[in-house]
Amino acid sequence: MTPRKRKTTEANEILAKEPLAPDVQKRVDEFYEQQNDLLQKFREDQETISRPSKKMEEEDERSEDRNLAQTTFILNIGSLIGNLAASIISGSLSIMSTFVDSSMDIACSFVMNICLSAISKTDAQKYPRGRDRLELIGVILCSVIMAFANVSMIMQSINSILNDTVDPKMTNSTIAIVVIQTVLKAIIMWLCYKRGSTSSLVIAMDLRNDLMTRSLALVCGYLGDYVWRFADPIGAICVCTWIAYSWCRHAVDNIPQLVGISAERDQMARILNITLKHDERIKYIDHSMIYYTGLNAQVELHIVLDEKLPLKITHDISHDLEKNIQKLDFVERCFVHVDYNCDGD
C-alpha cells in the first residue's frame, strides 16, 4: 500500500470512529442522496438513448399542451363572465381583483396559444432550428402583463381606502359563482401538474394563483361585509400583491435561460457520462460547453479519437453520440467536434 493510500485509509477509519457534528452529518447525507439520485438518472439516460428517436413523442406532447391551454382558455372566459357578474352584484374590491386576474388570464392564455400554434406550424426552411424559444418568450410576456395589471388594481384599492368609498355586499350568488369556478380550476390545475411540461406548469402556476386569490378574495369580501369593511380593499391589495410578485419572480427565473445560462451540474454529469460510455475508442473529452438559449440546452463537445481511425468510423462515432445526447429531455441540439489531440481549442 502506498503512503498516500495508507493516509486515506487511516483518515476514513478516524471518521468512522468519531461521530460527525449534526450539521456536517446532514451535509454528508445530502451529498450521498444527491449521488444516488444522479446514479439513478444515469441508468434512466441509458434506457432513454436505447429507445428510438423522440420526435413523434414531442409532437404528441405539444398536442397535449395545446389541449390544456385551450381548455384553460375556455374556462377563463367563463370565469371572466362570472367574476364580472360577481363584482357588479357585490361591489367588492376583492372580488373585482379576481375579475382583473381573469381578464389577464385570458390575455395570457391567448399569448400561450399563439406561441404554441406558431411552434407547431414552423416553416423548416425559414426557421431551420425551429421556434421553441417562442414558448419562453410567451411566458415572460405573460409575467409582465400580469404584474402591471395587478399593480394598477393595488393603486385602485389604496385610493378606495383613502377616499372611504368601500361598501361590499356579499350575496349567496356571489359566493356560488366564486366557489364553482374555484373547483373547476382545481381540477384543471391537477391535470397540468400531472402533465409536467413547461407550458403546462405555467398554466398550473396561474391556476394555483387563482385558487389562492379567489379563496382569499371570498374570505376578505365576507369579512368586509359582515365584520370590518376595510378588510375588503386590504384583501384586494393582498391578492394583487401576491399575483404580481409570483409572476415577476417567474419572469426573473426564466430570463437566465434565454440569455445563455450554463446547465446544472447534474445535467453536465449526465452528458459526460453518456459520452464516456458511448464508445471505447473515445480517448478523451477535450472540451465541453452545455448552456441554455431557450427552454432546452445546447451541447458542444470536443472529443479526441485516434488520428489513424478512418473517416467513416470517426463520423459514425460522433454522429451517433450527437443523436443519443439529443434524446435527453433537456437537450435541444448537440454538436460533437472530433480532434486527434487535446489542444483545448
Automatic annotation (TrEMBL):
All copies of domain Cation efflux protein transmembrane, residue ranges: 72-259
GO molecular function, one term: monoatomic cation transmembrane transporter activity
Keywords, in A-Z order: Ion transport, Membrane, Transmembrane, Transmembrane helix, Transport
Keyword Membrane carried by entry: yes
Keyword Protein biosynthesis on entry: no
Record-annotated membrane-spanning stretches: 134-155, 175-193
Membrane topology: Multi-pass membrane protein
Short name of any one Pfam family annotated for the protein: Cation_efflux
InterPro entries membership: Cation_efflux, Cation_efflux_CTD, Cation_efflux_CTD_sf, Cation_efflux_TM, Cation_efflux_TMD_sf, CDF_Transporter
Disordered, as annotated region: 41-65
Localization annotation: Endomembrane system
GO cellular component term, pick one: endomembrane system
Major subcellular site: membrane
Domain Cation efflux protein cytoplasmic: 265-339
Protein family per UniProt: Belongs to the cation diffusion facilitator (CDF) transporter (TC 2.A.4) family. SLC30A subfamily.
Annotated protein name in UniProt: Uncharacterized protein
Lineage, uppermost ranks: Eukaryota, Metazoa, Ecdysozoa, Nematoda, Chromadorea
